[in-house]
Amino acid sequence: MNHSTASQFSLQARGSLQAALEILVTTCLIVSGTCGNALIFIAVWKEKALRTMTNVFVVNLAVTDFLFSTTVLPLTVATFIQGRWTLGMRGCQLQGLMFGTVLNATLMTMTAISINRFIMIRHRARYQTVYTRRNVFCMLAVIWCYAVVSSSRPFYGLGRYYFNQYNGFCSLDKKPGTASRISWVLAYLSLYANIIVIIRCYIGIYRTVSRHRKQIKSAQDCHGRLGTKNRVFGGDDVHIAKTLFIVIILFGICWFPAGIAGIVVVFGVNIPGVLQEVLMLTVCLASSVNPIVYVIRNRRFRNIFQRIIKTHVSTMDPVV
Which of 80, 121, 131, 310 sits between 20 and 30 A of 211, alpha carbons compared? Predict the structure, then answer.
């Protein structure tokens, strides 16, 4: 690696305290993201009641977070430890590809979850026809194929990957003059299309639930207690929709600041190095929050998580 290349892949100068904090925080995110999402896999595998068509998408979301925690973040931790990127441009391209693939797969999966909940609540009679095992796995195949193709744009001349000397990640370059205009138009069209679909689905869910509750209240006022057989959908369906909406909102909170920064960079605005690092850490946090939401909001996930942890702890107890 010659001097110019070494400079290109070197982190900006930082104090020992900052370097230690970077390593500590990123390592904690790796551990929490890996362990938390692994618990989701084990929970669905062990608990038959969790093996629903909706949870296929939940597991796919956990797969994206698990891959981010085990393939993307460790390379950045190694960079923080060594003070420079040591895997060259090929390695940088690989991390950039993985980073983009995981992000696009996450966004597409959240859109698929929103559509799933919308059809379950708004068009329940069609749900079993649409969400067959074959159709669901075809949807997953489309999600991952799209994610890979969309993230590999630099390999066919639309943009390039670069190493960010402030946050230690390789990703698509957004700076003017290096980013392909076609590439970024396609990227932001895809982003906003997914956001519009998610918002539209949850507005539809909200309106349907509100209208249904008014009908129930009106029927109760006229005829007394309404039997459950007259309900179009159950309380569990609404609870699941709310839980997954919280997951989507938290993803948006983690990614929104970085997304805004990405837009302003396209127009030539410089983002301070420390702010770039903070924004990237909020992005990394998104891979760890979902298991916490499931534990708080879903009793079945909570119970199976507790059983798994208790079983693991008991096996570690020393034999007297």
Answer: 131
